[in-house]
Each structure stands twice: as structure tokens, then as C-alpha cells.
Amino acid sequence: MARFTRTEDPLTDQRAIFDEMTDRSREVFRRVVEGYLETGAPVGSRSLTRTMSEKVSAATVRNVMQDLEYLGLLGSPHVSAGRVPTQLGLRMFVDGLLEVGDLSGEDRARIDETLTSNSDDVPALLDRVGSALSGMTLGASLVLAPKHEAPVKHIEFVSLAPDRALVVLVFADGHVENRVFTPPPGQTPSSMREAANFVNALAQGRTLAELGTAMQREIANRRREIDTLAADLVESGLAIWENKGESTERLIVRGRGNLLDESGEPGDLERIRELFDDLERKRDIAEFLELAEEGEGVRIFIGSENKLFSLSGSSLVVSPYMNADRKIIGAVGVIGPTRLNYGRIVPIVDYTAQLVGRIIADRA
């Protein structure tokens, strides 16, 4: 069985609501949610009467559905339509009624095939992971690559334009990274040099995380000794390399077309555009990793619970992966409409995260 970390809704006592429901109302609720997840369409009372374990009339089912709507678990998109689960309803279904099985042999073989390679190129591996997840789940995949942990050898700041600068980072193992960022206004060639000299004096033998801590401490102690512009530049450049910037973690997104193909309504298309706007402009993408750090295993975020995106009509299924020291270094996930097939996607994401962690640990 997949490891699954349940997410509590702090605003609602789900257990009290669940205890208030009868066996019949629980069955109606479960069948409405399962029908919605399968078809994406509202579920009507007449169709439910054909699948209920007891013989009941459509009027009885309608009364039960009205009670569930009063509890906030179901909603009606149109006056004469059937019911669909609300965000609270989906949350309670995921936390209390979702049956997560084992990974199918076909899915396991496809993941294994994707990750089987003798290459040490981790970015290429994660690209393949993203493509495989989006293809298997018909959602968009998100992969957060591990940070580079080698000691820093040299840092250089290069002005590209009044509002653009390049930071060149050379690691002791020969790895080089270049990232463009927005520096504080009013930079001069001398402040650029002073900032680089200040950083390099502290960089030797330190990883980025260690360097960041040392730099913040030194800036606090020596702010009067260094030019204000240089201090601001150091802090701006530093933010690029810490957890608050894009270049520390590489976010790989695959499967935009899957979400577009799934949607036929203009409103849905607009929400999907908002999602990808969030992805493209989001600077604090390390928040994606923080979503997964509160517990091992897969976590599910539904609608507005997903604090990474402003898109309310989406769900995120995410799991961290770890290195040989059991330290979380990245994450993999799938994002899609709230009617994702959670029972199938949870074990796929869980197995992929475990496998990626083992492979990266073996190549370290």
C-alpha cells in the first residue's frame, strides 16, 4: 500500500460531520464523489438508485443529497442538475473513504523503464520522470530537482542592464550555474566588484546553505563597512541561491496539454491559464517542497488548500524524495482538476518518489 499522509482541515471537524451521517447518506455521498471523479459530471438521484446497495426511490436519494448539501459536502452547479462534491466533500472523501491500492504491474513497469539508465545526468533523469508522470496520469507533472550541495569555489556578479544582472556560481567540483536576477536599483561596477569580493572571501569550503548563513551574519556585523549598494546586491543575489529562488531548485513542468485537453469550458481554460501563469512567475518555488516536508509519503492538496497556486479548481498530489541520509532534497507531484483519479495517482507518485530518491542516492 502507498504511504499516504492525510491532511487535516483546521477549519472543520470532519469527524463530527462523518458521525452525523447515516449509513445511507455515507453511501450516497461516496457514490456521488466516485461518479464525479469518473465522469466529471454532476450525479443525479435517478442514476444513483440503480447502484445503491438497498432499493430506494429517487425521491429518497434526493432528500439525502439535500441533507449532504446542507452539511457542505455536495453542491449543485445548476438548479436542475445533479450534485458534485464541494472542496470540503472531496477533502473528507480523500481523508476517510478513499481506497488506495497497490501500484499496478503496468504502471510499475513503465516507471521502472523510464528511470532505468546508466547515465549520471540527473536533470535528464528528472525530465524523463516528469514526462512519464504526465503521460501516465493525464495531468501536469511537477518535479523539483535537488539542490547542488558541493562547496562554492567562486561567485561573480555581471551587470546585463539597469534592471538585470547575472550571477555566475562555480562549485569546487567543477559544476557551473548561471542565473539572471533583478538587482537593487543604482548598481555600479564598483558595487558589483565589492559584492563579489565580499562573497568570495566567505565562500571557500562552504556549501550554498552554509555560505548563506555566514553572509547574513557578516552583513549584520559589517554593514557599515561595506557599501550599501553592495550589501543590497549581496542580499539580492543570495536570495537567488537560497530556498527563496528559482535557481536553487529546478522546477520541471510537463503535460500542459493534458490539462487543456481535459477542459471544454471557457472558465476552465481561464483557470488553467492562471495556473501556468503562477508557475511561470512564481519565485518562491521552494514552497512546493515545503508542502511535502511535514510528513513522509504522499500528500493531497485540494483547491484552495494548495497554497502554491492561486488556482482553486486544481488538486496537487505530491511526495518528497530523500537522499542516502534521509534528508528531503526534492519532490515529485501531479497537478490536475479536482476530479483526479486519486486512488491510482497516489501509488504512482509514491513509488516514483521512492525510486528517484534511491537512484540519486546511488549516484551521489
TrEMBL record:
GO molecular function: DNA binding
This protein's UniProt keywords: Repressor, Stress response, Transcription, Transcription regulation
Signal sequence coordinates: none
GO biological process: negative regulation of DNA-templated transcription
Residue span(s) of domain Heat-inducible transcription repressor HrcA C-terminal: 125-346
InterPro entries assigned: GAF-like_dom_sf, HrcA, HrcA_C, WH-like_DNA-bd_sf, WH_DNA-bd_sf, WHTH_transcript_rep_HrcA_IDD
The organism's place on the tree of life at top rank: Bacteria
Membrane-traversing stretches: none
Coiled coil: none
PANTHER family: HEAT-INDUCIBLE TRANSCRIPTION REPRESSOR HRCA
Protein family: Belongs to the HrcA family.
Function field: Negative regulator of class I heat shock genes (grpE-dnaK-dnaJ and groELS operons). Prevents heat-shock induction of these operons.
UniProt-recorded name of the protein: Heat-inducible transcription repressor HrcA
Organism in which the protein naturally occurs: Oceanicola granulosus (strain ATCC BAA-861 / DSM 15982 / KCTC 12143 / HTCC2516)
Gene name of this polypeptide: hrcA
